[in-house]
């Protein structure tokens, strides 16, 4: 499968596909801020409310104009944090997993962070989720676990793992 990574200026064109990807991701058990079962309308509302800006960047992984994955990069704008950014909402369609799409999305987000002089990336992911392997093998350092961080679809609480990665600063 040939995949192209494309930066979005607006989610409008892909909102339906992004919503479907989010529903499939959440209903598949991923902890990205929502509870399964997720309604498509809730996913669409999330994407409609997302404000892309100089501080919020979104990319999609496309195969024949079909969204196979997405990632967000949030550049911190606080005076004491302009050296860092957060990776958020990395999602890859179930049928497209384990084909390098997550790595490609991470790479483009990291490149953009460096272009904006960010030297520290942070992210969190559910304890025990397959994404932990991706982050560890992509050079992210495990910083620790916050127990009972997010509610799961069954009423229990799950921990979240925190990761960081230092990026070159161009010196």
Automatic annotation (TrEMBL):
Gene Ontology MF: a single term: acyltransferase activity, transferring groups other than amino-acyl groups
EC assignment: 2.3.1.-
PROSITE patterns xref list: GNAT (PS51186)
Tree of life domain: Bacteria
Keyword Oxidoreductase: no
Domain N-acetyltransferase: start-end pairs: 3-168
InterPro entries in UniProt: Acyl_CoA_acyltransferase, Bact_Acetyltransf, GNAT_dom
Protein keywords: Acyltransferase, Transferase
Pfam families listed in its UniProt record: Acetyltransf_1
PANTHER family linked to this entry: AMINOALKYLPHOSPHONATE N-ACETYLTRANSFERASE-RELATED, AMINOALKYLPHOSPHONATE N-ACETYLTRANSFERASE-RELATED-RELATED
Entry protein name: GNAT family acetyltransferase
Lineage: Bacteria, Bacillati, Bacillota, Bacilli, Bacillales
